Each structure stands twice: as structure tokens, then as C-alpha cells.
Amino acid sequence: MKQNQILVLACMMLLSIVIVISCSKSKTSSSGTPSSNTVNIANMAFAPLSLTVKVGTTVTWKNNDGITHTVTSNDGTSFNSGNLSAGSSFSYTTTTTGTFDYHCTIHAGMVGTLIVTQ
Ligand SMILES: [Cu+2]
Q1: Are residues 57 and 110 in the same domain?
Q2: How far apart are CA 5 and CA 81, in angstroms?
Q3: What is the tens place of the pLDDT at every residue in 10-68?
Q4: Residue 69, by phi and psi: left (phi above 0), alpha (psi -120 to 50) or beta?
Q5: Residues 50 and 3 in one domain
Q6: In terms of Cα–Cα distance, which of 41, 37, 58 is closest to 110?
Q7: The pLDDT value given to residue 53
């Protein structure tokens, strides 16, 4: 009778260990996502649409689309990638705080926002 109780307890402990391991495993797999200062270009869109970074951060746009795009700030001076062919990337190191709307000069509907904070 007492041995049975120990066996049940051991099974419950083993089960809880398995649950903890499976939970921590799903946590580590989510860390494989792209870093927070990268904007992916895919399917004629910037992702994320809006990115917030601290001043001094280098932001990288990666063209994962099959066609050429540009990353051009609406103010015309802050940053401009020029033609960014499929598979290439563009990096810009933020120097001032503010909200920078940008677009693709080739495709009018492609817009994004870079928010730079202190
Ligand atoms: Cu484009």
C-alpha cells in the first residue's frame, strides 16, 4: 500500500518535470525570431509596419521579397537605401529621436514607420 503511494508520487513528479521541460522548450524556440531592430520586406510590405528603437541603434531592412524595393524616409534626407535588390539589405544607424515615416519609391502602397526614442 505504501509502495503504491510512492509510485504514484513518483509518477506525478515525473509528469510535472515533463511539463516544465516542455514549457521551457517552447520559450527557447521563440527566441529564434529575428532581432527587434530588423525590418523584413516581404510580400510588398514592411514587417513590422512600425518599429520603435532607441537612438544610436542600427536598424536593418532585409529584402526577402523577390523584387527590388527601396527604404526611403518621407522627409527625403534621413535615410534612403536606393534600389534594394532581392536578397540584399540596408542598414541605418539612428542619430536623432523622432518619428520617421518611410516608403518604397517603386511601390506607392508600401509604407512604414521608424520611431526613435531616447
Ligand atoms: Cu517596393
Answers
A1: yes
A2: 68
A3: 546 654 545 454 544 444 334 444 458 999 999 999 999 999 999 999 999 999 999 99
A4: beta
A5: no
A6: 41
A7: 97
Range of the domain at 86: 38-117
Neighbours of ion ligand 1 (CB under 5 A): 69, 104, 106-107, 110
Task: Compute, in angstroms, the gap from residue 102 CA to the centroid of ligand 1.
Answer: 11
Q: Ligand 1 center to residue 3 CA distance, Å?
A: 69
Q: How many domains is the chain partitioned into structurally?
A: 2
Residues 4 and 45 in one domain: no
CATH of the domain at 107: 2.60.40.420
Closest CA to 102 of 87, 114, 91, 117: 114
What is the Cα Rg of the chain in Å?
A: 23
From the CA of 79, how far away is ligand 1's center (Å)? 16
